[in-house]
Amino acid sequence: MKKTLLSASAVCLAMAVPFGSVMADENADLIINGELEITVRAPAPAHMEGSGISEIMSGWVFRATETQAFEMDDFENPGMIFTEAAIDAWNTVEGEAGESCASCHGTPEDMAGVSAVYPRWNEGAGEVRTMTTQINDCRTEQMGAEAWDYDKNDMLNMQALLASVSRGMPVDVAIDGPAAETWEMGRELYYTRTGQLDLSCANCHEQNYGNLIRADHLSQGMINGFPTYRLNNARLNGVHSRFRGCVRDTRAETYSVGSPEFVALELYVASRGNGLSVEGPSVRN
Amino acid sequence: MADNVTPRVRVPREAAAGETITIKTLISHPMESGQRKDGDGNVIPRSIINRFTCEFNGEMVIDVAFEPAISTNPFLEFEAVVPESGTFVFTWYDDDSSVYTDSKDIAVN
What we know:
The complex is a heterodimer of chains A (285) and B (109). Chain A is α+β, with helices and mostly antiparallel strands. Chain A starts with a helix and ends with a strand. In chain A, the strands form five sheets. Chain A has a three-stranded mixed beta sheet. In chain A, strands 1-2 form a two-stranded antiparallel sheet. A two-stranded antiparallel ribbon of chain A has the order 3-4. In chain A, 38% of the residues lie in helices and 11% in strands. Chain A has helices at 2-22, 65-70, 79-91, 101-105, 131-142, 153-164, 180-190, 201-205, 239-249, 260-272; strands at 30-32, 36-38, 41-43, 55-57, 120-122, 127-129, 212-213, 216-217, 228-230, 235-237, 282-284. Chain A contains ten helices and eleven strands. Chain B is an all-beta fold and 109 residues long. Chain B contains no helices and eight strands. Chain B has strands spanning 7-10, 14-15, 19-27, 49-56, 59-65, 75-82, 86-94, 99-108. In chain B, the strands form two sheets. A five-stranded mixed beta sheet of chain B has the order 2-8-7-4-5, with no helix packed on it. Chain A binds chain B through residues 75-76, 78, 81, 84-85, 234, and chain B through 4, 6, 8, 10, 24, 26, 28, 71-73, 75.
């Protein structure tokens, strides 16, 4: 009997070791370059009352120590490489109007705070705009240039650049007023089960964050760190592509990138992160 | 031909004589392994950085052979002992015979 007990505890130990290496230091604080403090834990916004979440956490908190370290130094953050390409694009004159981003907006740093409030209601257009649709509106309407593809290289690079200059500022997307309708639609999508696995966003990211789903350590599904450099595919990833991946994993037909459904979901999910810092380009696995 | 290849290096500006310093290098490069195929089934030709060297005042500090399994945008971190003030010269050798260099001065006090 004693022998059985002993071997059982030995098995437990053996299992604990590999888990230990992939689990995160959930109490770590994120300071970038030794000076830029990032809020990775914050009180949940009022609209999340009743969700069971009182403290919202950036996905950074859930990642392994080594992955966390990538983001603490811009030199080691592979996502920062892409912001350099975007600086070139920022200054490049394109389109019939003979304008570049810089012609109107000055330096990328002048755009600090913009990423924090998107997606956002656009009065003139009468719709909620994401960073992507807003950048493309600039390109097609102001510059007379071609629109960039949703969640593709040029667009993600630019979004990473714009996010990087807003790092440390609190996410603060508006959910009331004219955006309320879109926000409600996003909330409904968040709680709607889809696919053969019959899972909603909430099943994993609200009810089971912190638990393991097979080898994945479930986060709260916050999008304050997008665009995200994933070690998984060694490139920047957009919010909608991430949504697609998640919905696909429930074995459902997904909405397409840039669809009204995903725009609404982006607004809703972003609002769940109100109070966390803008963190993009972040590093995740 | 790899596009947008940019080398980056981080070296402390100064150090004490005989101090061991940490050097970080990064070069943006696709590091196409030669193992992949495009949409039409044709092999995408190999295009990688195959060698990296760091020299200090003409003396070799580190000489590294890169293989196709090295990741895209290879990041390299290593230590060096600095005996005197001087210049670190970093060189990356591309499969397409391009050579990229960067250099950093360090003052020893």
